[in-house]
Sequence to fold (816 residues):
Amino acid sequence: MHDKTSPPQDRLDRARQLESEIARAVIGQQQVVHEVVLALFAAGHVLVEGVPGLGKTLLVRSLSAAIQGEFSRIQFTPDLMPSDISGHIMFDMKSENFRVRKGPVFCNLLLADEINRSPAKTQSALLEAMQEQQVTIEGRTFPLTAPFLVLATQNPIEQEGTYPLPQAQLDRFLLKVFIDYPAEDDEQQMVKQITDGRVGDQLDTSTIRPLMSAEEIPQIQNHVASLKVDDEIINYAVRLIRAARDWNGIEAGPGPRGTISLLRAARAEAFLGERDFVTPDDIKRAALPVLRHRVRLTTDLEIEGYRPEDVLKDLLDNLPAPRK
Amino acid sequence: MDLDRIAIKLRPRESWEGIDLGFTMARQWFIKLWLIWLCSALPVMLLLVVLPLPLWLAGLILWWLKPVYEPPLLYWMSRRVFSETISLRGVFSDWRRIVLPQLIAMLSWRRFTPARSFFMPVVVLEGLRGERRKKRINVLAKNSGAASWLTVVGIHFEVILQFGLLGLILALIPEDLLWTDWQSYLFDPDPVSEWLHHLTALAAMSLIAPFYVAAGFALYLTRRSQLEAWDLELGLRRMAQRHETRPVTMRNILLACIALMFIGVSLPETAQAVEMSHQEAKSLIQEVLSEDAFGEEKTVSYWEYVGEEESQSEEPDSAFFRWLASIAESIAFLGELLLWIVVMALLFYLLHWYFNNRSTLGGSVVELRDRRATPTIVAGLDLRPETMPDNPSVKALEMIDQGRCREGVALLYRATLSRLVHYYALPIKAGDTEGQCLDRSRTLQIPGLFDYLSELTAIWQKLAYAQHQPQKNQLVDLCHAWIEHFGGRDAG
Fold:
């Protein structure tokens, strides 16, 4: 590839196969699978919005199986404590010593189910771990093992008694992904595949081949981060974000972290597109999942039922793309 | 029909008062009427549930069969008005006799008669058909306007009631259990919504039907009472009953006879029994007619112009009026001119819009290819044909030979976009990336073009965004292939 420190080609090829491998178990959610793999290679976290029962746990389990990573799941509830996530120190009667009991956050892939069910204090414990890649328990700091990807979910229907994530915390997620009902054919195939010869409703990831080890992922992430980005592309990303701040219908636009995230996601897009350089197409493809949770629409547009995607699509259509 | 037993107060009424009377009757006997209607309609509804019909058709049939459910109500009311109580069983034992005659007519060409409720007694109670029915309706027709309005208002109330019931049901269902919303309900209903629609329609129809039938029947009674002076007949009968116990004077009897002559009804039995000579009767009639009640004279005065008619041709005499008229004419002329200008401008705008949007309106690609489009700047790049060299591929080849590969490919790519926009009328937006332009070109379906554009775009992207220098022979091939695809035309 483009420098001597790049991982071997076969490793890159295996990384690119992740998407199709996971899609074998998670049927009919190609876009979601693509975006989650994108976030993994861009070393970001994903906020998933969708009703329950669409295969979010299966998705993370499948990804975990494909990269042989450690998987944890936390169901966020109103009484969940920060220590339930990060862990705590307990007194071991046998050894008469304090022992650290690490929480579920110590893993490679964490599914934070219904993150908006817990109060801000608990949410921030996880969000801090996401940002810092480390956890502090009773004054001692423990680094998290790379790769560390959090897939937090929100249920768009049941909003009673929830604690919506503030804008500053939403900004920590690289992508916001919508998971929708699969198409009829996909659903039929999925039901057939899952129910044939299965007892109970345990998720089956046995069809997933382990393509690589979790330790290889940071190398891929480093490779992705070093992909070439032309100044024109950076200029396009900056123009896009700046235009979003002043665009008609957007009350609060994305900050500089949005631009950084956009370029990270665009690099991962270029990697999955088997290129070693970023094109304006990568920026455009990454723009919606990167920006949709970073903009807030004006009240009148919200009342009229517009979604951030509608306004962002309008922006992307009208902002001149770079042509040298 | 025994008028002595009539349960309503007979008096001359306007049509609207007649409808009021009907509503009073419906309120009075609502439960009975409602049950009779349901007994007719529910079996139909259940049958429709069982039959494998599309839901919309089931709803339509339920509505169409309204003339089947209504006659039993009318039959029951016609008995009840004359103080005869009839049970539900009694009504339905006569069902065939009440409903079946003229059912086909009522369900076909008479289904949309607006005064259906008013004319129904003619068919159901009088049993008239054909020419006799027609004549009878012509005689009764005075109240048909009110009856038509009754139908119009009834339809509106039925719809309001139905949607009110629906709204109530949907409002009472907890949000989590709510499977639909108004938009889906109206434009894309699921089977549950459709059945709910039919059930609420049935409920609304059942609530409105007693009022509708009773009001139509009351209009019919009002009209017949007017025509046949039922109120007078009834009054005279009561007078006769009162005088049965008193000595009857000849004068009173004669008065009654004369009154009946005027109203054209049969004489009461007591009056028919009186015998009198022709001469005596004549003198008595003269005597009665000479009384104030018959011989009153009135003098009415009014003004009427009896002078000569003035000439109609009135020209404005004064110069002022002539000036005013000329101003008005000028304004009218200017207005007309302005209107024509607006019409022409609109026409021009429409033609202009049509020619600019022919590709999206299904215009032929071949025609568009030959058309010279207005020079435009597209997507921030100057793609005007006149800004291109005479032969872009030759010029690009020269640049490549001189080692200016990047400039050469840039020119080739720009010229390609220009051709796509101006000769193939490809709609490229300002925000389109190279990949999107490529995707759009797929719609042109010109053999080999998409493959060529894919190769050119890939080389251009590598050169522009990754500074990857392509091999020279690859670029030369691209330039030659460009001539094959676009070369037969002038650039400018």
Remarks:
- The mean pLDDT of chain A is 83.
- The first helix of chain A runs from residue 9 to 25.
- Chain A has two domains: 1-213, 227-324.
